[in-house]
Amino acid sequence: MAEVRTPVFLDCSSGEPLLPEARDAWVLAASSGWGDPQRLHRPGRLAAQALDSARERVAAHVGARPDEVVLTGPLAPTAQAAVAGLVQGRRRVGNLVVTSTVEHSAVLAAAAAYGEHVAVGVDPLGRVDLEAWTEAVGRPGVALACLQVANHEVGTRQPYAAAAQACRAAGVPLVLDATTALGRLDTTALGDWSVLLGWAGAYGGPASVGLMVVRRGTRWRAPYPADDHQQGRWPGVVDVPAVWSAAAALDTVVATREVVGARQHALVDRLRREVAARVPDVDVVGDPDDRAPHLLTFSALYVDGETLSLELDRAGFAVASGSACSASSEHPSHVLASMGALTHGNVRLGLTRTTTEAEVEAFLDVLPGVVAEIRDRLGAA
């Protein structure tokens, strides 16, 4: 076994560490913009100005209007609100909710809870079947459809623009989950969506802040008791310092997207090649090219994923295994199962903005020995 070293964090599929710029922005806002933005006193006015600025910046990054930006909480309740609100707003049309089979578990759970779920399959790379998608959204009684920009486990980009065209032709609103894409891909022109989802924790902002951008004219109705905050679209007082921090993080990652993305893409390219070359009986999944730049998932035969992640942690590398959206690492990945890929012994890497070539090389040096030792222990070598 390799000796323990300074931990290398490679689990950004579940969230990016808080950026220094986001931390500094929170401290600044907490000291000056902490007031209730609905009040007329100076702390309230400063808070209102901060919220207006944050909405403007988010809107610019997703090609929307500031008044369409709703500041929410974590991804799960945000996804639930998006789905439930459209089902409620379009209840006269029907309650069918169309998704791909590889959406985040929060989206899949909401689709099943608030409507009649119709799941469209994907190809071995994780890309939705457009012909089946078009047929599904064209059925009578479809309230909405949901699709990711890029998958949160394998990184594969979806044909979201074509999917949006199919939805528009059928008169069906599209919920577009941009969580994995924000700050990493160009999100200013993502097609004709109706509701866009995001989560600040995914790009280095506070994990408490989510985004739900609702286009004007969309028949979305609040699925919970409304109050006078955010025009009744999300209940309760907004956490202004956290929102200001989230906007600062998004500004930072967008400003450096091309440089950071190119470096991460090259590092993942190397990982894809070398993991397959150095470790026998391994399955590297997802689109090798048309993908989010920072993600890689592979499965090693004859190895338990939880054991592998624990042994890699002992060797100094924090990685993920199982489903990216399950509370338990032992839960098999529904994404890999939908793709027809191995779900046993899978490892998911998410590179940080600061992951270095040396850290990647160190991981590649350690991985074959760790896998071989586990297989030998199990008598599978």
Please, could you describe this protein's structure?
The chain is globular and about 65 Å long. By secondary structure, it is an alpha/beta fold. It has helices at 20-32, 42-62, 75-89, 105-114, 130-137, 160-170, 240-255, 257-278, 305-314, 334-339, 357-378; strands at residues 8-9, 69-72, 96-100, 116-120, 142-148, 174-177, 195-199, 210-214, 282-285, 295-300, 317-318, 346-350. The two termini are 16 Å apart. The protein contains eleven helices and twelve strands. The strands form three sheets. Strands 2-8-7-6-5-3-4 form a seven-stranded mixed β-sheet, sandwiched between helices. Helix 2 (42-62) packs parallel to helix 7, helix 5 packs parallel to helix 6 (160-170) and helix 9 (305-314) crosses helix 11. The chain folds into two domains: 8-16 and 257-378, Aspartate Aminotransferase, domain 1 (Alpha-Beta Complex), CATH 3.90.1150; 20-252, Type I PLP-dependent aspartate aminotransferase-like (Major domain) (Aspartate Aminotransferase, domain 2, 3-Layer(aba) Sandwich), CATH 3.40.640.10.
